Amino acid sequence: MSFLLKSMVGSQLKSFGLGGSSEEKKEESEGSDPAAAQGMSREEYEEYQRQLVEEQMERDAKFAQKKAERATLRVHLREKYKLPQSERDENQIQMAGDDVDLPEELQKMVAEDQDEEEEKNSILGHIQNIQNMDMDTIKEKATATFTEMKQAAEEKCLLM
User: Is the model's pLDDT at 94 over the cut of 80?
Assistant: First the structure.
C-alpha cells in the first residue's frame, strides 16, 4: 500500500520539480557521454571505436577484393565466349589493385574447361564423338551425301 501511495504522490511531486532532481541530473549527464553510457572509461571507449573502424576497413577491403575477383572471372568468361567487355568490371579490378587473381577453385574450374575444350577439338575428341553417334544416323548421312553428289554429277555431265 505504501508503494502505491509513494508512486502516485512521488510522480506528481517530480512533475512539479520537487524531489528526485539529483537522479535526473545524473541521468542527463550520462546521456551526453557515450563512454559512460556503455560503462567504459573514455580511453576504453576510444579504443573500442578505433577497433570498430579498423574492422570496418578490413571488411571493406575484403569485399572489394571479392568484387574484383568476380569481375576478373567475368572478364575471363567474356574473353572466352567473345562477348563485349564491361567497363564496370575493369573499374572494379583497378580499384582493388592490379594484383587480383582468380581464386584457386575458380582457376581449377577454368583449367578443367580449357582441358575439355582441347579434348573436344582434338582428333581423339572427334573419334569419341563418332563412337557416341548412332550407326544408322551415320549411314543415313553418308547415303544422303552420296546421292547429292551423284545428282550433282548427273546434272553437270551430259554422258551420264
Answer: yes
